[in-house]
Design brief:
Layout (H helix, E strand, L loop, with lengths): L13 H6 L5 H8 L5 H11 L3 H8 L3 H10 L4 H21 L2 H9 L17 H20 L1
Helix pairs in contact: 6-8
């Protein structure tokens, strides 16, 4: 899937998110451009079963701020970058776990590797997103070594 093909429409399926893995920095920058189209965020939410409250948590924005971005049709660049990090995490997770239901459940369960906190609690800041990404990559490396 080409990076520029995502900017004008929503992610329509689980396969499209899986095709984003591995998402290169260059591809992410091309997708984000001047801000991610809101339709892409809505499509991502549909595929991942994330709700508005979770997205607001991840973006550190109130419901009013979310609605303002929705009305404008484009996310600000910092919010776009966070969403692209989430897309990469979900693409990797779906690829690693093989089924979105398995990964979505893993995101909600306390995790020993993360100090018994649910991975979902890490999505609200850059450090947490990086830690979540590293944890998934470590898990993947362990499975590949077996």
């Amino acid at each position: 899937m080409k990076a520029d093909s995502l900017s004008g429409h929503a992610l329509q399926s689980f396969e499209q998110i899986r095709q984003l893995h591995p998402l290169t920095e260059e591809n992410a920058m091309a997708i984000v451009g001047d801000g991610l189209h809101f339709a892409v965020l809505e499509g991502f939410m549909d595929v991942t079963d994330l709700n508005v409250s979770t997205i607001c948590y991840a973006l550190n924005v109130t419901g009013g701020g979310y609605r303002a971005w929705r009305d404008r049709g484009v996310l600000p660049k910092p919010a776009s970058n966070i969403i692209m990090q989430l897309v990469e995490i979900y693409a990797f997770g779906y690829s690693h776990f093989g089924h979105r239901r398995n990964f979505n459940g893993w995101m909600l369960e306390p995790n020993l590797r993360l100090g018994m906190i649910p991975p979902m609690s890490l999505i609200s800041d850059e450090f947490g997103l990086k830690e979540l990404s590293l944890t998934l990559k470590r898990m993947d490396a362990l499975i590949l070594e077996v």
